[in-house]
Amino acid sequence: MIANEKNVADSLAAAVTRIDAVLSPWGFVFTADDVRYSHCGYYASGHYCRGMTRIGLSCRETIDNLFYEHSFIKEFAFHQEKESCILGHGAFMKALGHSEDCHLIACHDIRDAIIARDGGDRVAALIHDLNLFAAPVLREPSEEFYAVMRRKPGIWSIV
User: Average pLDDT for consecutive 10-residue bins of the chain (159 residues)?
Assistant: First the structure.
């Protein structure tokens, strides 16, 4: 199938409907972004958000990119410092000790792309990993999640 704007938006909506079953009860709310075009064709994207934590998705025929982001804000008298830490799904699973048994893995042929370990349904693989491995640190805001996110140097900005 040739991806066009409607196809990728519909594919993202179908994936989000399934992922909502896990992330919505945890307090995450999905917001879709505009459909965009890249060298690989059209893609739809958006993110789940709860407070300062975001889980970003992009989708063509199915989800093909996923990242976890958390921003830490420090307030000072005359400014704020913001540190944003971002991990891909593989790095997140590795930090949780599940790089060998997670179902959603990195596609080594395409930078930042994800595939199901068994070559099957990527959304089902993500739901599996969220329920079995990420739930203890993502179900509710947790210091363990913050510690995992801070293991990789973040992006700093001063406002």
Answer: 78 97 98 90 94 95 93 84 88 93 85 87 97 96 91 63
Q: How far is CA 35 from CA 42, 54, 154, in A?
A: 7, 19, 27
Structure tokens at 85: 């830490």
Whole-angstrom distance, CA of residue 60 vs CA of residue 11: 7
Q: Decide: 71 and 52 in contact? Cβ < 8 Å.
A: yes
Q: Global pTM?
A: 0.89
125 within 8 A of 51, measured Cβ to Cβ: no
Query: Among candidates 8, 15, 40, which has minimal Cα distance to 30?
Result: 15
Give dist(CA 115, CA 15) in Å, integer. 14
